[in-house]
Structures are given as structure tokens and as C-alpha cells.
Amino acid sequence: MVHSLPGDVFYPRDENGKYLYHPTDLCATWEALEALKDAGLVKSIGVSNFNRRQLELILNKPGLKYKPVVNQIECHPYFTQPKFKEICDSHDIVIVGYSPLGTCRDSLWVNVKIPSLLDDPVLNSIAAKYKKTSAQVALRFQLQRNIIVIPKSFNPERIKQNFEIFDFSLTSEEMKMVSSLNRNERYVELLMWKDHPEYPFNDPY
């Protein structure tokens, strides 16, 4: 989403500390991705952190050759994105949910006012029933919503546990219980880039 000016500095700033951005044309960028697909260099193309306006900008682009296959966005029981999921579903765009287990507590880029997801009592009570962890319940919830999850971990045991979600299912009532946890608040706000012309989080979805 954020495009810095070309050069050796990863995130260049001016003398006042303001980030310097490279002008971005989302439709032109999408056409470049389409060219990569035509050349056989990629199998599928998609977007990340696009809001509804940005997604519809691509979908309504004159001469569109390929729709986005996926939209990678934050999605977890505290931020279920139900309205945006309906929109993506209507266009056969798969949601890839990042931070499906919540995220770290780094206040530089994370909204730490939201409690830790994995400590949630509802998730933990359901986990106890199935002899699973709250993380496994959160991942199973997304799986049953047909959302791809990409949990991050450096811990081999937790990585193994993240795969062990195919031997149980949540009931429809439990799915409703977890859905009701939605706070419509995101952990990952990326406020340092709020002044970017294409900052996507000003819109509700």
C-alpha cells in the first residue's frame, strides 16, 4: 500500500521527519500485474489492504483483464469484517486474513487499547470444550467462514498447533458466539502512514 520514493533509504523522510511517498496510480499498478500474468510470470494476482473504494476502482477499471483473486486484510474474531466479506464474496474474491490471532503489543504500529485476542474468555471456554487452544478456535472460526488464515509464529510447537484445526468443528451456536466478539476495531492501524493519499483505513471498510 505504501510506496516510498526510489533510492537506498527504505522509508525516506524530509527534513521535518515526514515520509516521502512515490505517486501511486492503483489502476496503472494493476495493469502491470496483469502484464506479469499474461507473460506467465505469475499464476494469480491480488491486492492487500484495499478498502471497498480501492477494490471497486480496480473492478470498474476500463479494459480490466483479470479481477483480484484475493484481498489480504486484517481479519480475526475482534475484527470480522462482515460487510466487506459480503462484497468480496460477491466478486469471488477470497479474503486472506492476516493477524488471525491478534498481534503483538507494539504501540508504534498496533492499537494496544484492544485486549489480547487469545485471552478472550469466550474463545478459551470453547477451547476447553474441545481440548484445544484459543488460537486454534480462532483459526477454526475463520476456516469455517472460508477465510484463508496466515498466522505468524517463530515457535515450532505453536506452528504445529496452528495446523491442528481439522479434527474438530465449531457448532453454529459457537460460530455465533465468536462472531459476536466483533468490535469493528483493527489492531493494525499503521498510523505512521495515515497521510498517504491511498491510506485505506479512513473508510469503515
Automatic annotation (TrEMBL):
Where does the UniProt annotation place the signal sequence? none
The UniProt entry, under Gene3D superfamilies, shows: NADP-dependent oxidoreductase domain (3.20.20.100)
- Looking at the record, the residues that make up the NADP-dependent oxidoreductase domain are 22-182
Single GO MF annotation = oxidoreductase activity
InterPro entries membership: AKR, Aldo/ket_reductase_CS, NAD(P)_OxRdtase_dom_sf, NADP_OxRdtase_dom
Q: Which family does it belong to?
A: Belongs to the aldo/keto reductase family.
Q: Which PANTHER family match?
A: ALDO/KETO REDUCTASE
What is the name of the protein in this document? NADP-dependent oxidoreductase domain-containing protein
